[in-house]
Every structure is written in structure tokens, then in C-alpha cells.
Amino acid sequence: MLAIGSLLNAQDGVDSIPSIMDRGMALHDEGKYEMSLVEYRKALEMEPKNGFVNYEMALSYYYLGDKVHAEEFAKTASKEDSESGVQGVILLGSLYDEQGNGKKSVKTYKSAIKRFGDYYLIWFNLGVTYNGMGQHEDAADAFENALANKLDHSSSHYALGTMQQLQGKRAEAMLPLYFFLMLEPDTDRSKQAVASLNDLWSQGVSRDGDENITISIGAESSKDPMRMSDMMISILQASDGLEQNEGKSDFELYHEKATALFKYLAEMDLSNRDDYYTQYYIPFFQRIADSEHSVAFTHYVLHSLYPESSKWVELNTEQLESFFNWLDETE
Known about the structure:
There is one protein chain. The chain is mainly α. The chain contains 18 helices and two strands. It has helices spanning 2-11, 17-29, 33-46, 51-64, 67-78, 83-98, 102-116, 120-132, 136-149, 154-166, 170-183, 188-202, 229-238, 250-267, 276-290, 294-302, 307-315, 317-330; strands at 205-207, 213-215.
């Protein structure tokens, strides 16, 4: 009799929230946002305060351009202590940011960090908001905190490098961009990251018609030893034109510069700093520079833009596999 009752319920169209939400999310993924809301409302009638249901409703309203209803349902979702609650907070912060209310967005994210802990996506979105407000140093700090909680979040490495470049911090921009390229080596962003690295290398270095090389370093009042690396970066870049480097390929020159920079940064006295650079980036890249895998590393991070490296990556899969295995063992 129980079996027959269950069958009759199914035939009468009695649905569970998971099955309703599955249908709604499938419609959302197809871009049929209004139809997805029809499904979500069925689930909402069953559990009006369900964070998952409210978040998905907020998201569909957001994609429909109805920011008022998106905010309403995101607020309800954000009250739940769950993954859906976190996503609701992030959507709320993004909505405030888009409305031009950066301060409210920052407040929302900071409150969420106190409540949910160091969740990397909250830190990342806080950084995005700070960047929109022109507070690049605060944005960089937020992206570092995101990485401290999720090392393989490629967007945080890319964003951190961009923030440091905007502040004129050359070495501090280069390291996260190099790391980003290990995680995301062959996308449109990869090509932009390599282009940014090239700009950072060549900044302040010029050659005239007689092949004379001029190095210019902007005035910098900071006593941070890391800023002293600007001169070394320029010297390494200028060394491309030295007689001793004649006949070397572009890759050989690039590899030698990168390796020398990683070793130089590791030898600097940075005892006055205690951040993601001194704790992770600098020791990590020193290990690469001192290893037998530095050539594989350089080819891999450059292969989105340089044919020579692209060909090397194609032909040397075993060396790359050895490099990645070594990375796994050193983490």
C-alpha cells in the first residue's frame, strides 16, 4: 500500500525541492531566466527561507536585469549559515558595487568575513570593489588574503599582479603574474599577462640609434628594500644588448633574466616584511630558479605568446610532467 501511495503521489505531480531546483537551474543555464523563476517559486512556496532557493532566484533576477528583486532574495539567502549564504553575500556586495555604493559593498564583505571566516571568494570580491574605488593597495591586500586561503585561484594572482603594476611595484607585479601563468598558461588572459610582464621588464629601459642604453628609475621615497629591485630588473633587461649575449635566442635571454631576478629577490634582506611575498612567492620562485626545471617553467609560462616555447611544450611532455610532479612534491 505504501508503494502504491508513493506511485500515486508521483503521478499527482508531488515534487521535491531538489528536483524542482534541478529543472530551474537547467533552464537558467539555457538562458531561460523567467522560466527558471517559475520553477523556483514552486520550491519557495515549500520553504520560503531556504537559502539555496533564494540565492538561485536572486541570480535569475540578476541576469534578467531586475536588481531590486535580486537584492531582495539575496538578502534572504545571506541570512543562512551555508554555502548559499556566502553566495548570497557575494551577490549582495556585487549589487551594491554596481550601484556605485562601494562603501556599503566593503562593509558587507567585511561583515561576511567576520561571520563566515576567510573564504577566498569574499576576499576576492572585496578586492574587486576596492579596485573599483581606486584603492589599489587595499585591493592588493584583499587579493593576497584570497590567495592565502586558496593558492590555485588564478584570478586572484592575476588581479594582484595588476594591482601592483598600477602602483608601479614591478617585482611585486611580476611574481603573481608568473604564478598566474602556471595555472592558466594558454588563454586570452595569459597573452595579456605575458604582455604585462614584457612591459614590466622594459619599463625605464631605452636604446637610441647608436645602441646606447639608458636606464631611468623614477623617484621613490619608500624605504622598502623590494623597491630597490627596480634597478636590478632594468639592469637585467638592458643586459640583452651586451656583447656577451650576442647570438642568444629570445628565450635564452628571457630565461636567464627571470632566473636571475628570482635569485636576487631571495637574497634581499626583507626581514621588515611579513606577507604573502616573503612567506610564499619569493621562496617558491627561488626553488624553481635553483632547480633543474627552470627551463621547463619558463617555456611553459611563455608558450601562449612565443612560438619557440609553444613548440617546446608540444615536444617535451615528459619534461613538463617531471616539472609538475616536482611541484607537487615541493608544495
